[in-house]
Write a structure and sequence with these properties.
The complex is a heterodimer.
Chain A: E1 2-6, H1 10-22, E2 29-33, H2 36-46, E3 50-53, H3 62-72, E4 77-82, H4 87-95, E5 101-103, H5 108-115
Parallel strand pairs in A: 1-2, 1-3, 3-4, 4-5
Chain B: H1 8-24, E1 32-38, E2 45-54, E3 59-67, H2 69-80, H3 90-112, E4 120-121, E5 125-129, E6 137-146, E7 149-158
Antiparallel strand pairs in B: 1-6, 2-3, 2-4, 2-5, 3-7, 6-7
Helix pairs in contact in B: 1-3, 2-3
Classes of the chains: A alpha/beta, B alpha+beta.
Chain lengths: 120, 166
Amino acid sequence: MKILIVDDSKAMRMIVKRTLRQAGYDDFVTEEAATGREALNIILQSSPDIVLIDWNMPEMSGMELIEEMKKNSSPIKFGFVTSEGTPEMRKRAIEAGALFFISKPFTVGTFQQALSGVLS
Amino acid sequence: MSGAQMSMREWLEAAETSAQELVTTALGYEKFEVIGRLTEVPLKKIGAYIPLVGDGETAKMEIGILSDPEGCQALSRSLLGMADTEPVTTADVADAIGEMANILAGSIKRLVADRVSSPQIGLPFFFDGMVHFKEPLATAVSNSLWGTVNVLLVVLQRGESGGQKQ
């Protein structure tokens, strides 16, 4: 199984990888993208099983990335890992097809709860 | 949105509540303590600011996390899960402190969502030295301990009402 982490912050990509390991997903292959454009290239080349997306990114936001994913690739599971988290944004994310919405700061338990049904 | 416009004291309290969550979860420290409050930002600090704005002048804020170089390095190591002696680059510190500001602003945004119309957060910027804002500013600073690191949690209000609301 392959997990793609999309976040413009290298620090946050590292934290998400560490949290995935701590949550028990240490046998998954993780890939990283710092921009939406980079993420699209990886999606087209290696078809990850799930994509974890930040909401606020320069150049292409998380929501814009989802729109591009829908245009350019076969359906891929995705969810948000973001500092956002108002009810309105959660609603927008779910309506766009997100399977989960993890708000920062998160815990290992948050990841386990969000991903347990998605990656089983 | 409901209720009156938030005072600087309410903004600072929201920032402190959010900082406590950040400190005890993402940074993994047991201790978060407010040891005092200031009305000015001390000179020559390093850190990051991030904008948080609302529709209709309900908020034009900058939220900041400031410390000294050693403090920012220690916070960055904690966020990145590095050992205390492990070298950390300036780029890593800028990225980590910016991400902390991002997490902090997101948490504040959730707390103030019923007081601020359509709150939006921008992208963080890292600085070393002093930031000069052109507009008048109201300032509230929480002098705090994050673990053993002395951190200034800063709330700035931009715009015409800046400098008047406390």
